[in-house]
Amino acid sequence: MKKVILLVAFGAGNVQGQRMLRCFDERVRKHFPGIPVRWAFTSLMLRERLANAKLKSDSVRKALHKCCFEKFDEVAVQPLQTIAGEEYADVRDAVGEVAGQTGIRGRVGRPLLATDEDVRRAAEAVMRHLPETRGPDEDVVLMGHGARHAAVSRYGDLDAAASLLDARVHVGAMNGAVSLDNIVLRLTSRRVWLMPLLSVVGRHALRDMAGEHAGSWRSRIEAVGHECAPVLRGTVEYEEFIAIWLEHLEACF
């Protein structure tokens, strides 16, 4: 069987995000020597922007059809979504559709927080990658994207699991799950650390989390008397999170 790996991300429109996806690509190639790696991006806007810049910009369906054209028999698809929400379901639908049309064998790896065991490991990963200069009495807030989907409850599960390990670590999401309004009520330290629970640093991390406009998480936390210290690193930049992604990809084979 001629195998290929297809990594799927929302996309990255900034230099840091693109660089981190390339670093993750290198880790995958090292972990699976000899197996080609391809990419697909779910954001139409980012695909159009990359295409205008003469950069690779395949959708999931287009990437899968290219794999068929290259005569691959089996594709292991690993999305970099945090939860099994609508975007993850769209990836699965695309794989099933193209497999039915072409006969290629496709398997889709789990998102970061698919099972209770994933949540437990992710909570431990958070603990291992807290800011080195953070004081033991300082709060840390992680911001996820969230979704209007039942799987959004995984953010609440991670919040609970993280709190058991460190009561000053809080996990919320922009949409659904644990809201910032609820988290603010728990904050007691003068300085509060902000970290994105997103695969790469993009618009959500830069604007919605760390931005200076009134609606950002940073501004809303500072408005009630705290100082914020944003950490602009995505989950694909941390070794413990990478290990979870790689194990999910291994399961595809």
From TrEMBL:
Check the record and name the Gene3D superfamilies matching this protein. 3.40.50.1400
List positions binding Co(2+).
H145, H204
Source domain of life is: Bacteria
GO terms in the biological process aspect are: anaerobic cobalamin biosynthetic process
Listed A to Z, the keywords are: Cobalt, Metal-binding
Does this UniProt record's set of keywords contain Thylakoid?
A: no
GO terms (molecular function) for this protein are: metal ion binding; sirohydrochlorin cobaltochelatase activity
- Active site (UniProt): H145 (proton acceptor)
Task: Give one Pfam family.
Answer: CbiK
* Protein's recorded name: Sirohydrochlorin cobaltochelatase
**Native species of this protein?**
Candidatus Desulfovibrio kirbyi
